[in-house]
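S2.1 Query sequence (DUF4229 domain-containing protein)
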Amino acid sequence: MAFFKYSLFRGVLFLALFLGAYYLLGLSPLAAALIAAFGAFVVSFIFLRKQRDGATAVIAERMAPNATTTQSTGALADAEAEDSLIDSHPDVQVDADRPSKTRTAE
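Output structure tokens follow.
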């Protein structure tokens, strides 16, 4: 249902913007469609985050109902490497959320 609601919001938004650009501004159908598509994207990206996340969850559940994680294989391997490093060297700290204080050669 979340996917349907999100699609309906975006469709109505596109239609409203298209009709406004076509009839009120007098643009060609192609220009009105391009402006409506871009406008619907921007508005839905900014204001419809909760609905977009719900629609994404529905799609993820439908595509992989038995998945235990949403992380990629590379991300899981990286996390496993960090865990083994910490287990073997308790004095080492891994904090991936903060940028490194050392500069790398460019």
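The two ends are 49 Å apart (CA to CA). The chain has a mean pLDDT of 84.
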